[in-house]
TrEMBL record, chain A:
This is DUF2849 domain-containing protein. Pfam families: DUF2849 (PF11011). InterPro entries: DUF2849. Residues 83-114 are annotated as: Disordered. Residues 91-114 have a biased composition (Basic and acidic residues). It comes from Parvularcula mediterranea.
TrEMBL record, chain B:
PANTHER family: BLR3264 PROTEIN, FERREDOXIN--NITRITE REDUCTASE, CHLOROPLASTIC. SUPFAM superfamilies: Nitrite and sulphite reductase 4Fe-4S domain-like (SSF56014), Nitrite/Sulfite reductase N-terminal domain-like (SSF55124). It comes from Parvularcula mediterranea. Transmembrane segments: none annotated. Coiled coil: none annotated. It holds the Pfam family NIR_SIR_ferr. This is Nitrite/sulfite reductase. One of its GO terms (molecular function) is heme binding. Keywords: 4Fe-4S, Heme, Iron, Iron-sulfur, Metal-binding, Oxidoreductase. Gene3D superfamilies: 3.90.480.20, Sulfite Reductase Hemoprotein, domain 1, Sulfite Reductase Hemoprotein,Domain 2. The lineage of its organism: Bacteria, Pseudomonadati, Pseudomonadota, Alphaproteobacteria, Parvularculales.
Amino acid sequence: MSADVVKIATGGVKKGKNQGLKVVTANDLFTGAVIYWSKGDLWTEDLSDALAVEGSDALTALEKAFADEKAAVGPYLMDVEPDLSPSGRGRLRETIRDRGPTIHPEFGRQAEER
Amino acid sequence: MYRYDDIDRAIVRDRVSEFRRQVERRVSGAITEDEFKPLRLMNGLYLQLHAYMLRVAVPYGTLNPDQLRVLASIARDYDKGYAHVSTRQNFQFNWPKLADTPDILERLAEAEMHAIQTSGNCIRNTTTDHFAGAAQGEVEDPRITCEVIRQWSTFHPEFTFLPRKFKIAVSATEHDRAAIQVHDIGLQLVKNDAGEPGYKVLVGGGQGRTPMIGEWLHDFLPQAELLSYLEAILRVYNVYGRRDNMYKARIKILVSEMGLDDFRAAVEREFEHFRAMGPGGSIDLPEEERARIAGYFAPPALPERAGASEAFDNALASDKDFARWVRHNLHPHKEEGYVSATVSLKPTGAPPGDITDTQLEVLADIAERFGYSDVRTTHEQNMVLPHLALDDLYAVYQELDDAGLATANAGLLSDIIACPGLDYCNLANTRSIPVANRIQERFEDIDAQSEIGELKIKISGCINACGHHHVGHIGILGVDKKGEEFYQLTLGGSADERASIGEVVGRGLSTDEVVDAVERVISRYLDLRQSADERFIDAYRRLGAEPFKEALYAEAA
């Protein structure tokens, strides 16, 4: 199976294919906060700073993220649009992870914009 | 209530120290996440969408004011100012940090609380009637049985790695408020012809992706043999339960695949093994130990009171809001002049089951001054003050009302069970709480809800059914269709002594359609009911699904 169609975890119990633009996401080990793999092999809490990659580059980024166990928990590949907004089947889930619970607009990153 | 003895205190403190070291090793990199995950789960620490979630055990839903204050302090110091009552009578915190968790557990331990057995494939918190010890018609306080089970099951070495999680519920009244028929084991306290207490034993109930009503395994188990019999059931499950497929690993699947007769025979063989040991040889409790545990559940010293209260009657006549609350949120008490009150955690627009740190403290103060220091959580995500004098009731109501805790909707359609759903949960497909809030908003008028009568709406954001949708009079299951939220309605479910699994009625409904659909079902019920006394579930049982299906899809088509 080539790298671009390999089955991958896509968050929760869901599985998907490694097709299209991806960002590696995980939770911060210490706080549980949602984090994204960025350029320079660092984690960021800002999705707009994430590294968007495809195919074998996505798998390489995921492998590096897995190796950084001292900072992150449960990395996986999420679908993104070219502007880095969440896309695909996990769009709502990833939007909620990024922004915060829809029932508590006062919590999460969405609160910072209020 | 039960108070820790030296053994309880020591094991809980040791567990906190052990977990502190485990966290340190994870942070230092000495152990991997794969090694750490089962350890944190054994201490109730999950990782959800945005943060860790700590589930705190509330054995059989009983709390005292000091414990409420500790929960409030944790909500304030380590969370975002609120806690959440789960559908298994536990508390959950949605925002703790990993490094803080050992300190949180230490604070809990000071107040005789912990997070043990709130996750993992072990025997979970035993749940029961939230009116236990106060309800009329009890064989005895079911919490005695729950505490016996807690002591037997805590750290039981044989049952720490079962094929899957295992849930037991106990009821001591004919009317089942503990949903015993949808648990792995359900115990109903009964008396035999000689007046001796014992148990009717159900096995193999459950919800999730394969909902089943439990089957009667034993008609009358003498009380003295409870632990032998439970151990026999667990041994059969442990040996024969499937470990190859987690979706087929619950005991309900084993009972179904073996057949009840063969399962019972296997249990009886194990049971005989214990019986052969005789008194003193088996694992059953000596009577004096059982009596010691029972002593912790002696009823509070309630002063004798008249059945009527002038203060109560005057308030009832002068305050319509109080009268409305009295009509819906009170439950009869076994002692004259007293009642139990449901403290609704379902105000319109708030997540069902959420309670703030301040509200927890108000409730603690009320319980201390008026409620004999006894507070309960319910599996319907509310709280209960089980012992209140009628004379004090108006004062209690006013303080609850000032704290936003006097929503008069217990048992009505806005008293909705909803799982955390996709707003928090890593497993969820869809959101649950916003749907609950939209239904509450549509039917906000409590008097209109009162006209509709008892109606249990239960919402789950995925097939794991934490929101108990299978046993909702109207159940709502969230399903993911190509990334969009859809909702599947089930009708006719019930979790009481006439338990039933709701029937799936037709295609999933979009987010925009689902509240209108619920309203159409309710309108049809109002058209069809024989009288205001015929509840939705009674009308459904009389008429079947068809007229409601027609209403559901006629206008949606």
